[in-house]
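Tokens in:
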């Protein structure tokens, strides 16, 4: 799913009377969460590479 599709889906799942500020807040939270997940995955990947390097020496 593209980022645009994710945002559209997120907005569609909100209540009909949601304010513009609430939409922006939800989008901000979503972006921060996705970045956190990405950073964790990158950190795990780097940790695995470091461990593999240790084993191969």
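Residues out:
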């Amino acid at each position: 799913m593209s980022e645009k599709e994710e945002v559209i889906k997120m907005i569609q799942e909100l209540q009909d009377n949601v304010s513009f500020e609430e939409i922006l807040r939800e989008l901000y939270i979503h972006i921060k969460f996705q970045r956190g997940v990405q950073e964790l995955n990158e950190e795990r990947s780097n940790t695995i590479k470091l461990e593999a390097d240790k084993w191969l020496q």
